[in-house]
Design a protein that fits this description.
Layout: E1 8-18, E2 23-34, E3 39-43, H1 50-57, E4 65-70, E5 73-74, E6 83-85, H2 97-107, H3 112-122, H4 141-154, E7 159-163, H5 171-188, E8 191-195, H6 199-205, E9 208-212, E10 219-224, H7 239-253
Parallel strand pairs: 3-8, 3-9, 6-7, 7-8
Antiparallel strand pairs: 1-2, 1-4, 4-5, 9-10
Helix pairs in contact: 2-3, 2-4
The structure holds adenosine-5'-triphosphate and magnesium ion.
Adenosine-5'-triphosphate binds next to strand 2 and helix 1.
Length: 257
């Protein structure tokens, strides 16, 4: 395979939701790329169409126009090619925690015995040792999110799409999870596309950030994060960090103009 191809490429994606009463133009010619092994964030106002973009990448929704490429292949409308963590927890209530973690791998053909072994190995690393056989309703919202996150991460798909994976976590657990995600990503070098509302989160984790405008959303700006790796929190006080942060803030603030 041509190694120059992107892990993900969106070309001129536009979308309008219509029903009998009205139509809503949500996305307007969105083009973006995720290189192999790159960590990319998508930041934008609520309702701008970020989750809609993810539904399209996952093949759950076909764009009104435009094309989606994964590893250089046109896949618009095809399902099952990415690992996807949706915005709301998607755990199956009738499956235990460890069975939920193993689900994506089972779908990919791994034996249940192997998936459970992997789940038992990983759950303690996200602070959920002892909860292997619990059911989702016995967990807090943040714990449920961690299970969904681990499931997405363990799937063998090369591209991981995370839709606000840390939204329900308190500041401290959020920081811990960000650091954990960073260390896993640095080790495995998967391609990640992350939706977040947190500018700090986007800056700390990403190589590249796309800032979306209000709907109909266009890419307001593509920003290459000027920080070396490994990343650490002390970088948040650097002048180049604060400068980019300010830039993103004003893009989001001035979005109506
Ligand atoms: N199935 C649908 N039918 C009609 N309109 C929809 C549908 N799904 C989403 N929308 C509309 O599209 C717009 C974008 O929604 P989307 O969920 O993608 O926003 P978002 O950027 O993910 O927002 P948030 O940050 O709040 O999660 C919203 O105005 C929403 O009402
Ligand atoms: Mg959303």
């Amino acid at each position: 395979m041509n190694t120059d191809t992107y892990a993900l490429e969106l070309q001129q994606i536009s979308h309008t939701f219509s029903d009998r009463q009205k139509s809503v133009h949500v996305l307007d010619k969105i083009s973006l790329t995720v290189n192999k092994g790159e960590f990319v964030s998508l930041i934008g106002p609520s309702g701008s169409g970020k989750s809609t973009i993810f539904h399209m990448i996952g093949g759950l929704l076909t764009p009104s126009s435009g094309e989606i490429y994964i590893n250089g292949r046109q896949v618009t409308g095809e399902k099952g090619l990415i690992s996807y963590m949706p915005q709301s927890s998607s755990l199956f209530p009738w499956r235990t925690v460890e069975e939920n973690v193993g689900l994506a791998l089972e779908v990919e053909g791994m034996s249940k015995k192997q998936t459970l072994q992997l789940a038992r190995e990983w759950l303690p690393k996200i602070g959920l040792g002892g909860y292997e056989q619990a059911y989702p309703h016995m967990l807090s919202g943040g714990m449920q999110q961690r299970v969904a996150f681990l499931r997405a991460l363990l799937s063998n798909q090369e591209l991981i799409c995370l839709d606000e994976p840390f939204g329900a976590l308190d500041a401290l657990s959020r920081l811990e999870m960000q650091n954990w995600l960073l260390s896993v990503w640095e080790e495995y070098q998967r391609s990640v596309l992350l939706v977040t509302h947190s500018i700090d989160e986007a800056l700390l984790l990403s190589d590249k950030i796309y800032v979306l405008s209000d709907k109909p959303a266009v890419i307001a700006k593509e920003i290459v994060v000027p920080l070396e790796r490994p990343r650490h929190e002390e970088m948040m006080v650097r002048s180049e960090y604060l400068q980019v942060k300010q830039q993103i803030l004003s893009l989001l603030k001035n979005r109506q103009t």
